[in-house]
Amino acid sequence: MSFLSDSIARVKPSATIAVTTMAKELKEAGRDVIGLGAGEPDFDTPQNIKDAAVQAISDGKTKYTPADGIPELKAAICAKFKRDNGLDYKPEQVSVGTGGKQILYNALQATLNPGDEVVIPAPYWVSYPDMALLAGGEPVFVETTSATGFKLTAEALEAAITDKTKWFIFNSPSNPTGAAYTRDELKALTDVLLRHPHVWVMSDDMYEHLTYDDFEFATPAQVEPALYDRTLTVNGVSKAYAMTGWRIGYAAGPKMLIDAMRKIQSQSTSNPCSISQWAAVEALNGTQDFIPENNAIFKRRRDMVVEMLNAAEGISCPLPEGAFYVYPVIDDCIGKTTEAGTKIENDETFAKALLEEKGVAVVFGAAFGLSPAFRISYATSDENLKEACSRIQDFCAALS
């Protein structure tokens, strides 16, 4: 009898964390490495948010809180959903967790039974399928293409749904592609979901505020109110507020689901950090002026990276609408040999050779379920990005 559970054998470690760790270790060993794997802004948390955390410490707000969030934060979240998305939620419909990842995990643990299917568009954030597997469900992948901007079509969604489908996981803007759905594109998907009342929607809106070129964000329950009672709308403060390490995510949805998620959290982690919660109150209620300022920097970086990658031999890089990732396709690099003699058999060997020969760390596309491609996070300095893209150009030019 194996000591470890069968469920642990169903999942694999996070590839993005693995790449970030490898790049850090190589740097510490003295290698000149530019890491483009981490999905976190390089900006500091805004001062007003840090001040709110310091004040909370001074005020002694360092004790246990309700398992899934303090009332003040739940009120701020309800106000945010009303202000930004036109969605009305009551505090009892809100759950606060230790990052968006815990929120998603709790929801899947609370709802999936063996054999239940979870429809996931590919490429996808690396954790979606493994969280579904840990909860006993079966991920069903639906591939998109660069020709459609890596966006799921209504026809493909319709074809993926069966009588076993319990969840459809939707992420816009997307990690890893940056693709964001217009209201019309989203309406085509919600029209499909209306025809399948047994399917629930898990909308991961973590990159909501990171959009460019006058793109207007929309979320499923906003576009189609008839889906309100079977939609879990997930968000957090990590990305737009540069608060990745604070670990605060949240969601709103039907009370029955939120109650079940609270039960799981009360028997696992209990409450998120009390100080982080008070910081998140300020993030949501305080000034939002820094968001467009940061977005202007991200947009400039995006444009530079896309232009430089498209100038590299064998690479085609779509222009994403949001987040801080690009997902270049490398079909024309497969089968070639690097300057050091490594044959590029797939995107994993491409990424490994790029790191070993040029010191640029990216995440290979197979980790996100769609190859051959790789993901770059442009949430780092212009200088690093320009140098990294120059190295990628040199790497590709030397392929033969």
From TrEMBL:
State the family it belongs to: Belongs to the class-I pyridoxal-phosphate-dependent aminotransferase family.
Q: Which organism is it from?
A: Tropicimonas omnivorans
Lineage, top-rank taxon, reads Bacteria
The record, for SUPFAM superfamilies, names: PLP-dependent transferases
Task: Give the cofactors, semicolon-separated.
Answer: pyridoxal 5'-phosphate
> EC number(s) on record?
2.6.1.-
In what residue span(s) does the Aminotransferase class I/classII large domain sit?
32-392
- Record-given protein name: Aminotransferase
Instruction: Kindly list the GO molecular function terms attached to this UniProt entry.
Output: transaminase activity
Keywords (A to Z) from UniProt: Aminotransferase, Pyridoxal phosphate, Transferase
Which lineage? Bacteria, Pseudomonadati, Pseudomonadota, Alphaproteobacteria, Rhodobacterales
| Catalyzed reactions | L-aspartate + 2-oxoglutarate = oxaloacetate + L-glutamate
What InterPro entries does the record tag this protein with? Aminotransferase_I/II_large (IPR004839), AspAT/PAT-like (IPR050596), NHTrfase_class1_PyrdxlP-BS (IPR004838), PyrdxlP-dep_Trfase (IPR015424), PyrdxlP-dep_Trfase_major (IPR015421), PyrdxlP-dep_Trfase_small (IPR015422)
Q: What is an example of a Pfam family matching this protein?
A: Aminotran_1_2
Q: Which CDD domains match?
A: AAT_like
